[in-house]
Amino acid sequence: MKGKNTLLFFLIVALIAGLAFVAINGITIGTFSISPVKDDLKLGLDIRGGVSVVYEAQTDESGADLTKTMEQTKQIIGRRINELGLTEPVITLQGDKRLRIELPGVENAQDAINVIGKTAVLEFDLVTGSVAAKEGMDVSEFEYERVLTGINIKDAYVSKNSYNQPIVAFKLDSEGTDLFAEGTRKASSNGTGVGQIAVVLDGKVISAPTSRVVITSGEATIDGNFTYDTANELAMLIRGGALPVQLEEVQTSVIGPTLGLNSFNSAIKAAIYGIIIVMLFMMIYYRIPGIIASIALTLYATVVVYVMVGLGATLTLPGIAGIVISLGMAVDANVIIFERLKEEMKVGKSLRASIDGGFHRAMSTIIDSNVTTFIAALILFAFGEGPIKGFAVTLMIGIISSMFTAVIVTKSLLRFSLAFTDRKKLYGSRG
C-alpha cells in the first residue's frame, strides 16, 4: 500500500509540474504543439493598449424607447466592428444615453473611430416633385417619398458595372424586396414611364438612378463616382447596418501598449513575489502540509490560466486583482485545514484520523466563505460593466479552482504523503 501511495504521490506531482511547464514554455512533439499560455491569453485594453471611445446619443427618446434604441445601436456597432476585422471589442452602455467602446490592439485608432461613429442612415427615396435629384444634393432640396432604409438590406458588396467601374451591389430581405418592388412600380408608372429613386446616405444623394422597370428580385446596385475603397467602405457600412440615432463623440482615450504592458508586467511580478513568499511561509510553518499546499497552489495558477484560455476570457488589470484575491482564498482554505489538522493531532488522534477530521471540520467554513464570495462575484458580473465584469469572471474562475485544489488535491496528497512518514512534527504539530 505504501508503495502504491508513493507512486501516486509522485505521479500527481509530476503531472502538476508538467502542466505548469507546458503553460509557461509550451511544447512541440512532431506535428503536435501547444503554445505557451501567454501567447493564447487575450489581453484587455489596459494591458494590450488600444483605443477607448465614449459616444452620447443625440435623441429625445426616454424610457423603454430609449433603452431599445441604445441596445440596437450597441448591436449594430458590434457588427460594424466585426466588419472592420477588429477582435475582442468591449461595448458597454453607460447611463441612459452613453456607449463606451474599447478596442484592444487597434493600430489605426482614428480610422476605427471614423467608421464606428458614422451614422450611415441609408435611404432609398422615390423622387415625387418636379426637381430631379442629383448626386451631392441635400435631401431637403427635392420632394420625395421614402421607399426603404438600410435596415432592409441583407448584404452588400463591391461589384463592377459594364464600364468596369466599382459599384455597390446589394440584396434585400423579404420586407425590403416587397418595398423596393412597390417603389420601382410607382417610379415606372408615373405617366412618363421613367421615374427616379435616389440613394441617400446621411441626407446626401450618393446616386440618383432612373427606374423604368419593376424590380422584384430583391437585388440591385448603387452607381456613383466610387473608387474601390469608397465602394468597399459604403458596402461595409451597409452590411453593418444603419444606426438608429446620431452619436456624438464625447471622450477618446488612446492607451499605448508600452504603458499597458509595463503595468501588466508589474502586476505579474507582484503576484509571483507574493506567491513565493506565501509558499515559503507555508513550508516553514506547516512543513509537509506547507509543501503540499505549495504544489496545490501551482496547480491552481495553472488551472486558472488554462480555463481563461479555454473560455476565451480577456485578462485585464482588474482581472489580475480577481486572481490574486482568489489565490488568497486558496491559501486561507489551506490554513484553515492545517490548523484543524493540528487541533486533531493535539487531542491524540492518529495522523490519518487527524487529516480526515481536520478536513471534515474545516469544510463548512471553507464552503461558506467561498460560496458567499462567489455570489458576490455573480452579482458583480450581472450588474457590472467592462473591467468590473473582468474582475468578476476571474474571481469566479479562481474560486472554483481554489476549491478544487485546496480540498481535493491537497487532501489526496496529504494522504499519499503518509507513505513517507507518520511523524506528527513534520505535519505542524508542536507537541
From TrEMBL:
Q: Where is this protein chiefly located?
A: membrane
Tagged with keyword Protein biosynthesis: no
Q: Which UniProt keywords apply?
A: Cell membrane, Membrane, Protein transport, Translocation, Transmembrane, Transmembrane helix, Transport
InterPro entries, alphabetized: Acrflvin-R (IPR001036), SecD (IPR005791), SecD/SecF_arch_bac (IPR022813), SecD_1st (IPR048631), SecD_SecF_C (IPR048634), SecD_SecF_C_bact (IPR055344), SecDF_P1_head (IPR054384)
| UniProt subcellular location | Cell membrane
UniProt xrefs under Gene3D superfamilies: 3.30.1360.200, 3.30.70.3400, Multidrug efflux transporter AcrB transmembrane domain
Topology with regard to the membrane?
A: Multi-pass membrane protein
Q: Does the keyword Cell membrane apply?
A: yes
SecDF P1 head subdomain domain mapped to chain residues: 142-245
Per UniProt, residues of the Protein translocase subunit SecDF P1 domain are 70-128
Residues annotated as transmembrane: 270-288, 295-313, 319-341, 362-384, 390-414
Report the residue ranges that make up the Protein export membrane protein SecD/SecF C-terminal domain in this protein: 247-415
Q: Which domain of life is it from?
A: Bacteria
Could you tell me which HAMAP family the record lists for this protein? SecD_B (MF_01463_B)
Assembly and interaction partners: Forms a complex with SecF. Part of the essential Sec protein translocation apparatus which comprises SecA, SecYEG and auxiliary proteins SecDF. Other proteins may also be involved.
Role this protein plays: Part of the Sec protein translocase complex. Interacts with the SecYEG preprotein conducting channel. SecDF uses the proton motive force (PMF) to complete protein translocation after the ATP-dependent function of SecA.
- Family assignment? Belongs to the SecD/SecF family. SecD subfamily.
Name under which the protein is recorded: Protein translocase subunit SecD
Question: Organism source for this protein?
Answer: Fusibacter bizertensis
What gene makes this protein? secD
